[in-house]
Queue: 2 jobs
Job 1
Amino acid sequence: MKQSILLIEDDPNITDFMEVVLGQERYQLTIASTGMEALTAFQTTSFDLVLLDLGLPDIDGIDLLKILRKRMHLPIIIISARNNEEEKVKALDLGADDYVTKPFGTNELLARIRTALRHQNVQTESLTVVENKDLKIDFEKQLVYKKGQEIHLTKNEYRILALMFRQLGKVVTYQTLMTEVWGPYSDDSQTLRVNMSNIRKKIESDTLKPEYLITEIGVGYRLRDHRSE
């Protein structure tokens, strides 16, 4: 069965391009050029994923994101020319699963789509062990391995990495990490950076060219999903 994607975008050049690209990948694509068209589409069709442009003619994409998140839990990837960090953080904190900046590469977008769809499937399963290239996490035993060898982590390092594994391939904002690990009133970004630096030293072969833990500057971190490569 084809997976169904709703593209909310008013630029005909992009919609024509996406129709070709996603059609070649055998996705079933529906296009809405306004926020109201998108909301109407949801009344008659079920979708597996949404691609949402923020610059819509009738409603701001951020406001539409808020509406969609209140109504449903399917993956939402922002595709936008808005490139400032505050906008990205706001969208991710409001529940977007990912944020791709225009212009974007075809392979990058397709990889983000595969990751978001896979993550949605994993959320419905009971996670016990997840393998990502040479890294493996056992949630039941609370252990992490690289190439079969146990990595010794502190309690907070494990909690951070476990959260990143549960959000594999997605950007996790600084505030989300601090809230989940140190509590809702935490604002100690320096401690987070120190922990991330220590984790990198333990899981990366070369900390200057990380394979796994990617910094999204000004936004947060992403645990790279090698399974889609």
Job 2
Amino acid sequence: MVLTHADKVAGLAAWAKGIVTQLQRQFADVLDLSPEPIAINATSSHSSSYIAGLIQDNTQAILEKLPPIFTHGV
């Protein structure tokens, strides 16, 4: 979920947590969601690098769970 101008929405954290909780119940068997919403400021390189790092870590964890692919003669 991506929102713009999140700083202008009162009660956003509670609302977002409710959405995450609902998604966790509906998709528990196929999604692994963070229990807390993550807010970033796209104009801040520090904030943006945090979410990029999370994406990289999660992608790496997924790839490590996959069976190895063997190629012969390539």
